[in-house]
Amino acid sequence: MREDVGRHNAVDKVIGSMLLDPAQTLPAESDEQFGLFVSGRASIEMVQKAWAGGFSAVVAVSAPTALAVDAARRANLMLAGFVRGTRFNVYAPERL
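Request: output the structure for the sequence above.
Response:
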């Protein structure tokens, strides 16, 4: 977990800490599947960073941008938004 005033900086910190950790490999190629959870809106840049980092999902508390949805579908990355308790909207892939 990492945090920053800027949501993009927080994503950079997560991926950077994984890159510097000798126990981790990037992109994440293990049997484990990593999710990137953000407290704001999911943008195309966040999806691109998650894709490059080998994450399998991006989950946000707000709506993703249209470009983020398109990128997640191209990357075969699960993208969810409006997460509230046990409810959420899935935007990518088009079908689960």
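The two ends are 27 Å apart (CA to CA).
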